[in-house]
Amino acid sequence: MLDFAEGASAHEKSYITIGPIPEAVDPQELHSKKAPFSTISHHSLVHTIELILPKDVYTAIWSSIREKLGRPRYIQVIMPLITLLEGDFFNDFVKPGSVLILSEGRPGVDDVFSLEQGILTLQMSRDKYERTGLTGKPIRSGGRKHEKERFAIEIDLRQPSMLHGKKGFERIIWACRNVLNASVTWLLICDAVSQNSLDKAAAALQKYQPRILDCEFEEIAHPVVRVPPLSMDEVRSQSSLAALEDYCNEVSEWLGLVSLQSPRISVDDVIDPYLSRYAVPQSESTQLQSTALVILRWQGVMGSRWINQLLVSYLLQRELRTDRLSVWSALSASAFPRVAVENKDGYTILSLRESAETKGSSFVAWEFIGASLST
Predict the structure, then answer these.
(1) 148-184: per-residue pLDDT in tens?
(2) Whole-angstrom distance between the N-terminal and C-terminal Cα of the chain?
(3) Helix (H) or strand (E) run with residue 291 in it
(4) Total domain count for the chain?
(5) What is the distance between the alpha carbons of residues 183 and 158, in angstroms, rounded to a whole number?
(6) One GO BP annotation here (predicted)?
(7) Selection from 149, 142, 109, 144 nearest residue 127 by Cα
(8) Which of 91, 152, 179, 250 is most buried by its number of CB atoms within 10 A?
(9) Is residue 173 part of a domain?
């Protein structure tokens, strides 16, 4: 893993991982500890997914993938925090750790609550923290560095002691009823293979009129663009760490322009250099290629399990092709803000097929970590 950071840019980090994609990936074993699937698992909830494909790849395999890939869905519901700790929902979903939930709010400013794998995290101001009577720890808020203005409380609700009637659990119930008692908007997905569990979760929360929503999906046809050299041979040819850093930064910038549908990368682009001096990166040994692209975009609430399934399905379908498709694709995700400082903002995974003589695929993954501008 390479950590490229320097001077003024040290507050915003990009962790870059390069390596082979594990062979014989089982679609049922989606929580792999190996990169690049581990990068996806580090971001449990995201709001935007983009899959950038050359048009020949899209035409050849996307219809097969879409038939097998389930539609991502989520629940939006307005309710108080205490709801998570009562009734069938607590017993059937919170205790087993089968739901991922995030409340509304701005980290570092508002009260923000989340539930992941049965661990309830409560972020709040000092005033509310002291009133709850619960034990937590100070967290960075993006304000003055040495002032402990905000606190976080983490509670593992899967523990046997987290039951009604137990002293410690009753303290949590009291805090939720008397201090953290405002109704807020929640986003919820089920970390389970079957989508039926989402319907069951909605039924358990029926009192609060939950809404089951489908993630918005769109296909965007991109005009023919200039493509930089995207291959593992190009990665390996970099003569130094500094050269590899420059190459990774240039490719990341180009992928960002693709996502923005910028005309600067179009083969027909003509612009005065006074307004823009951007040029698609190229190497001395490889000429720029031109191809049409397709961007597949989902927006809503998606979990790491579904995204891993998307990537695995794509890789398996691509490897089944015997003809020569374009040898690259890029999967990008933008995550919800969870903390005020050094939030995990998202990632991009560029998959690259090896040469015809060498089977398998490799990847370059960027994991983006942000920070408060004020320290």
Answers:
(1) 689 999 999 999 999 998 999 999 999 999 999 999 9
(2) 27
(3) strand 289-303
(4) 2
(5) 24
(6) endonucleolytic cleavage in ITS1 to separate SSU-rRNA from 5.8S rRNA and LSU-rRNA from tricistronic rRNA transcript (SSU-rRNA, 5.8S rRNA, LSU-rRNA)
(7) 149
(8) 179
(9) yes
